[in-house]
């Protein structure tokens, strides 16, 4: 290191890639729309405000459904439901998955083997199938049940990823150095393990968020998600199925909303990894 | 005065064969000790026992005469403050997500050492010839030699009585190696060093006492001067004979 080194190193520049900006914009747009529905929507989502299956117009940007309700209003409310399910399911998956994954990583070999085998069995079940089983076993379809079911189903994937990442970190010399420095196991988790696995986990959470949105839409499509009058994108797609050839916008509009949110989440996740990982920043 | 003693220590991983067999050694305050042996001789296992990271299968490890007991937290806190370590690989021994200030300060924070942490970190960095602004950077911004200096700064920040170093120069190029040796030499004025290495030439530069290890057993120990001038055990003689030398040209 030369003597010319400045007294204070400049702050590292964050890599705001075009993909990250597109992702953040798409997700941000859905968040703004979802929050906006708490105080304002163009029309009452349950009111018949136009003709049945009317095409898009200035009055109804996405047209109307088969009962004459404004589709754009329903899609806006669908964004709020999708985000609620994503946040709730990822929070549940993270809480259960990270805890179980860390316990497995720190556990004795016998306990780890049992936990790893259990996680592998749970992962063998498709998320949607597991969620359907949990919804079927509960009192009935509701938004809360869907969130719980998707969250529990996703937790096994998060747990396995956490276990693999944590074990890799625990094998590093800096963990031995931390033990020699007197850092206890909880401190090692907080100071070393979580910060080192966080960039990969956050990407996985964003992917799980997208999968949760798709899973909720699928459950609603099958009648196991948010019940009417909740305007889930899956229910809108299911209702548009019968008229897809005569009024395709009924399926296209919620489809675009769903795809744009999932793509936005994936791009946003990649950008977040760059921000969270100092080794990926430009010098 | 003896800092750490290993008395008739044996160690085996699980039910496997013994990695160490009846090892007796003592680290005296103010006298650097070199533990020399080839790969698989049990050097790293001895280091783990000396650091209290593993428990012997039989025998006793004592610090200032008291047995190392991981369940005795107050005792272990004092032990950790007194005994620190530097590891072989400067790339994996520093947490890539921590700034240097946090890496160096970890022993102070974990051991609740009452001191001005910023000043102590700056002092430790200065001791290893790194500028104060290094504290605000991440490990990937430094070369291998600089990283090893950072690891040494972390080891000395709590002002330990003993620093154990595991093959500290083996991952470094020759010129960086020389600088680290000079640094360790200057540090040995304020702390005792125990160096674990396969390189008898390197430890002989810094240590007054040597222990020669072969297949988990100590085959020779004594002062570096005696062992280097008149090695008694054939293994020690082979180790010395295999030390690389430049060819002589007429």
Describe this structure in words.
Chain A is mostly helical and 283 residues long. Chain A has a single domain, classed as MetI-like fold, CATH 1.10.3720.10. Helices cover 67% and strands 0% of the residues of chain A. Chain A has nine helices and no strands. The radius of gyration of chain A is 23 Å and the shape is elongated. Chain B is an alpha/beta fold and 250 residues long. Chain B has a domain at 2-90 and 162-241: P-loop containing nucleotide triphosphate hydrolases (Rossmann fold), CATH 3.40.50.300. Chain B contains nine helices and ten strands. Chain B has helices spanning 43-50, 73-82, 100-110, 117-127, 144-156, 174-187, 200-206, 224-229, 234-241, and strands at 2-12, 18-28, 33-36, 58-63, 66-67, 83-86, 162-166, 192-197, 209-214, 217-223. In chain B, the strands form two sheets. A six-stranded mixed sheet of chain B has the order 6-7-8-3-9-10, sandwiched between helices. In chain B, strand 7, helix 6 (174-187) and strand 8 form a beta-alpha-beta unit. In chain B, helix 4 packs across helix 5 (144-156). Chain B is globular, with a radius of gyration of 18 Å. The relative contact order of chain B is 0.17. The mean pLDDT of chain B is 91. Chain B: Residues 4-240 form the ABC transporter domain. Chain B: It is found in: Cell inner membrane. Chain B: This is Peptide ABC transporter ATP-binding protein. Chain B: Belongs to the ABC transporter superfamily. Chain B: Keywords: ATP-binding, Nucleotide-binding, Transport. Chain A: Pfam families: BPD_transp_1 (PF00528).
Quick overview:
The complex is a heterodimer of chains A (283) and B (250). Chain A has 283 residues and is mainly α.
Short descriptors:
heterodimer; A: about 280 residues; mainly alpha; MetI-like fold; 9 helices; elongated; B: about 250 residues; alpha/beta; Rossmann fold; six-stranded mixed sheet; four-stranded antiparallel sheet; 10 strands; about 35% helix; about 25% strand; globular
């Amino acid at each position: 290191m030369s003597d010319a080194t400045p007294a204070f190193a400049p702050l590292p520049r964050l890599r705001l890639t075009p993909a990250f900006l597109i992702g953040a914009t798409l997700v941000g747009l859905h968040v703004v729309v979802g929050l906006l529905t708490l105080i304002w929507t163009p029309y009452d989502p349950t009111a018949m405000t136009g003709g049945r299956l009317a095409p898009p117009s200035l009055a109804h940007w996405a047209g109307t459904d088969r009962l004459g309700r404004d589709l754009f209003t329903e899609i806006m409310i669908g964004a709020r439901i999708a985000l609620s399910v994503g946040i709730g399911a990822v929070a549940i998956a993270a809480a259960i998955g990270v805890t179980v994954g860390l316990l497995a990583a720190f556990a004795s070999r016998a306990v780890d083997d049992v936990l790893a085998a259990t996680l592998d069995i749970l992962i063998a079940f498709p998320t949607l199938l597991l969620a359907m089983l949990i919804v079927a076993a509960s009192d009935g379809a509701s938004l809360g049940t869907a969130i719980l079911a998707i969250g529990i189903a996703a937790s096994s994937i998060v747990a396995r990823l956490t276990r693999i990442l944590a074990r890799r970190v625990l094998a590093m010399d800096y963990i031995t150095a931390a033990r020699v420095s007197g850092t206890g196991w909880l401190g090692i988790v907080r100071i070393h393990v979580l910060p080192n696995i966080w960039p990969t986990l956050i990407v996985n959470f964003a992917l799980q968020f997208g999968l949760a949105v798709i899973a909720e839409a699928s459950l609603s499509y099958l009648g196991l998600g948010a019940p009417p009058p909740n305007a889930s994108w899956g229910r809108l797609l299911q209702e548009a199925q019968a008229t897809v050839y005569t009024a395709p916008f009924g399926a296209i509009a919620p489809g675009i909303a769903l795809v744009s949110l999932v793509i936005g989440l994936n791009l946003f996740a990649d950008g977040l990894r760059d921000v969270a990982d100092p080794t990926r920043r430009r010098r | 005065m003896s800092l750490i003693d290993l008395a008739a220590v044996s160690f085996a991983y699980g039910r496997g064969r013994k990695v160490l067999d009846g090892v007796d050694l003592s680290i005296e305050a103010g006298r650097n000790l070199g533990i020399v042996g080839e790969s698989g001789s049990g050097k790293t296992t001895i280091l783990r026992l000396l650091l209290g990271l593993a428990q012997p299968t039989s025998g006793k490890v004592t610090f200032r005469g008291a047995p190392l007991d991981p369940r005795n937290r107050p005792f272990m806190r004092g032990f950790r403050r007194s005994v620190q370590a530097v590891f072989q690989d400067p790339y994996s021994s520093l947490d890539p997500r921590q700034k240097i200030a946090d890496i160096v300060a970890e022993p102070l924070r974990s051991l609740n050492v009452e001191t001005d942490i910023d000043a102590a970190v700056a002092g430790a960095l200065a001791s290893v010839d790194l500028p104060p602004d290094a504290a605000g950077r991440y490990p990937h911004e430094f070369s291998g030699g600089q990283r090893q200096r950072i690891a040494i700064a972390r080891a000395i920040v709590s002002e330990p009585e003993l620093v154990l170093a595991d093959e500290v120069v083996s991952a470094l190029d020759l010129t960086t190696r020389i600088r680290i040796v000079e640094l360790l030499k200057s540090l040995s004025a304020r702390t005792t060093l125990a160096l674990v290495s396969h390189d008898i030439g390197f430890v002989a530069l810094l240590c007054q006492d040597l222990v020669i290890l072969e297949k988990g057993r100590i085959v020779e120990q004594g002062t570096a001067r005696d062992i280097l001038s008149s090695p008694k055990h054939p293994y020690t003689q082979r180790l010395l004979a295999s030390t690389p030398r430049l060819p002589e040209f007429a």
